[in-house]
Design brief:
Elements (H helix, E strand, L loop, with lengths): L8 H11 L4 E4 L4 H9 L3 E4 L4 H7 L3 E4 L8 H10 L4 E7 L4 H8 L10 H10 L2 E9 L10 H14 L7 E8 L9 E11 L3 H12 L6 E7 L3 H7 L1 H4 L4 E6 L6 H9 L4 E8 L3 E2 L3 H10 L5 E3 L12 H6 L8 E4 L17 H12 L3 E2 L6 E2 L8 H7 L11 H4 L8 H12 L1 H32 L1
Parallel strand pairs: 1-2, 1-3, 3-4, 7-8, 7-10, 8-9, 12-14
Antiparallel strand pairs: 4-6, 5-6, 10-13, 11-15, 12-13
Length: 458
Amino acid sequence: MTPAAQTVGDLRTLVTRRAGLRRKVALLAADLALSKSLEQNGCTVLVDPESLEAVSAFHPEVVVAFDGFAADGAEGFRKLAQAAPGAELIFSFANTSSSSLLLQALLGVSPPPTASEREVRAWLTASGFVVSARDVVVTPHLESGLSADTEAALRQLFEQLNPDAAADRLLLVAKRGAEASPPERTPGLTTVILSAGDDEGALEGTVRSVAGQLQQPLELIVVSTLKNTRLDELARAAKGRAGLSVMLVGEGPADPLARTNFGITRAQGQFVCCLEAGELLERNHLSSLVHRLGTGTEAWALSSPGVDLGRRFELERWLEAGAVQRGRYLVDRSRLGSFHLQFAEGLALGEAMFFCRLAALFVPALAGAPPTLDSQRTVSSSSAALLEAMQGRPLRTIASLEAQLKAPPPVDLAELMQERITAKNETAGRLVSQARGLVERVRDAAKKARAQAKDEQK
């Protein structure tokens, strides 16, 4: 068998705990330290068997494998499933998207054999395995050769795009069985996730406005605190609509953003828009946003908030206007990569924080049309509060060169002179301030006199 990649003590402890007590374990690696740890835990261990036939003859209850086992991809897992159909599989592997490995690759260092969680899960599923548990392992930090600040900024940027970049290794526990397949993303489908409390009028109004959208095909997922029977009655108008499929989830979480997150995990659409009950849409709200994305390469599109925020997107102006309601924009999941679609639950700033996370990595497309969302909700979006909340883990922005080279505001020479004089002599600074005030009053009087003279000549 292929030997395991070198592991750390924490990983050995984790594998030992997952393997359980007094069980027959086939260890597909020549890791004597791990073998000893398993035996001390009461396990009978078959170490580094020569073949899968030897594994089959051992009749293991647990099989432990590492990176090298994935060299054959799905075929290796298929053969293992045949050799030990009743065994639980513990598989640990180096994470392809680890920020540590990405940094090494950027600096010209060839990474060790790795795998992505997505492809490993696909191999397991194809072989009839069901993943029952998942753990992450973070290895001790190694110097990259970059300055500490630059390395930290790059790591944070990687983790904004993909939270799993923080994991150096992943460990999956799987067993043969059957489970429902997760939702497949459907190209061209738009999913609307509607979070609702117990206000039936608000829920029914928003459902009707979604049912009247021009965009098709459309999927509506309603997650509400109401009981399923009542929810079914209120959504009746949408169920008969052609081109619209409806999923209802009753007795959901009390927190609106928790309800939204619950719906996101079930969304099948390429495009996703999230609403709160009580918000109403113009008929072209979704179609205009999808069309705007179709004319460019952006990952998300923003509808007009009804106030002039300029022709170019400036995050601070949108925050100041409080125009960060999640129904204002639509995301294209096919352009987001591994970006995590999840709101911070239970936080007043959760909606604004998600808006900032998107804006930090993806420049939005502006629909530039009259407002198409009527939202009476006030969203907490204080820039100062957001900066304070994210002080320990600030967002790293992919900024344009134009923004970084923007000319500084002109210097007020008189004010600068007063500041420097005051720093040396406070009394002299006060005299300068009085003189400036006098000059300003004289100038103002002169302007008014000239204006009055012009009026008299007319």
